[in-house]
Copper transport protein (Carassius auratus), 169 residues
Amino acid sequence: MNMHFEGSSSVTLLFNFWDVRGPAGMVLSVFVVLLLTVIYELLKVWKITVGEQKQSFIPQPSAPVSFSPEPSCFAPVMKCQEGSSSLTSSPSEISLAATENTATTADTATAAKKSWLLHCLQTAIHILQVTLGYMLMLCVMSYNVWIFLGVIMGSVLGYFLAFPLLKHI
């Protein structure tokens, strides 16, 4: 196998059945490789989009309750001069008070399930992206100038089309 780029119109790409012989076959093969590269770039954006959606389903931990006792309330609660309002703001009462939970258990379970499904989808997209990336690498390793240019132009076109979509996320 040659280890330098050639400009011929005959090459075998990826599999024995993809045997290109002639200019028409080369044009079609370059077009197919270009489309595969555009799909590769779209998969990158789709994976990022799914990751952003997954982040919205992850339940955020509630913020810890912080308090700063006022100087007049360092004494036991009964000796505090501010009345009943100081009872609700004292450290012992705050720790006993029920915290507000905006998400119910069912909502949390649904969010966890959606997050898990989005993670599975993101994994499947990653598998497709890696597989397609290695196939494109092998196409370039055919050392055909036209196939190489098809991959490069597909990457440029895919980036040009796909990455403006990230602004709409």
Notes: The longest strand covers residues 10-12. Residues 1-59+103-169 form one domain. Helices lie at 23-57, 84-89, 91-96, 105-140, 145-162. The chain is about 60% helix and 5% strand.
